[in-house]
Amino acid sequence: MTTEFYVEGINDIKYLTLNFCVDSVGKTTDVEIIADKTTIQDSSIINQIVKYRKGIEYYPDTKLKNNCHDQTFSFISKEFENSHIEESDFYKLDNFKIGIYKYHDIYYKNTIITRTENIQIEETNGEVYKYKIEWPKPNQYILTYLEVGKKEHEYLLGEKIYVEIIKQIDSQTYVYRSNLLNKIIITGIIVKNN
After folding, report:
1. What does the mean pLDDT of the chain come to?
2. Largest CA distance in the chain
3. Which of 46, 38, 47, 157 is nearest to 105 (CA)?
C-alpha cells in the first residue's frame, strides 16, 4: 500500500495519521484522524486519503481483523521526487558526517541522533538503536544495525539501511531517502542541532 505521495504546493514533508479498525471479515469499519500526529492542513488531500483508507479490505484470515491500527501517510514536496546532489556539491555535505541531529518527522520527533565517524546512535524515550555508519559516497551512507531498542526488532540485527541525501536545504538540514530490506522506502528530513 502506498503511503508516500509527492504533491505540489508543499515545501517540505507533511503527515496524516489515521486510526482505522478492521472487522471480523476484514473490512475497514472506522477511520479517524489522529490530530497530534497530523501536520497536513489540505482538507481535499485528507478527504481523499480517508476515503481511500475506508475502501481497503483484507482477507478474512488477516492478523489485522477485530482490531484498530494507526497508519501514517507522508506528503512530500514534488520538488524532492527526482532530487539528487550534484557531484560538484558533495563538499557541502561534509558537515553532516558527525554531530547531533533530530528527525523532522512526527513519529521520530523525540529521537536524538548522535553520529560519529563510525557509529550512529538513535535514542527515543529510553530505547536505543545503534548502527555502524559507512559513507561510500559523500551523499550516501549505510547504517548497519548493531543494537535494537525492542526485542521484536532483533531480526534487524546485521541488516542495512541504505540512505541517500537527495537535497541539502541549508547548512544544517537535508532531505534523505532510505531503503530497508528493499521494502521500506522512506523520504524524510534530518536537522543538525549543533
Report:
1. 93
2. 56
3. 38
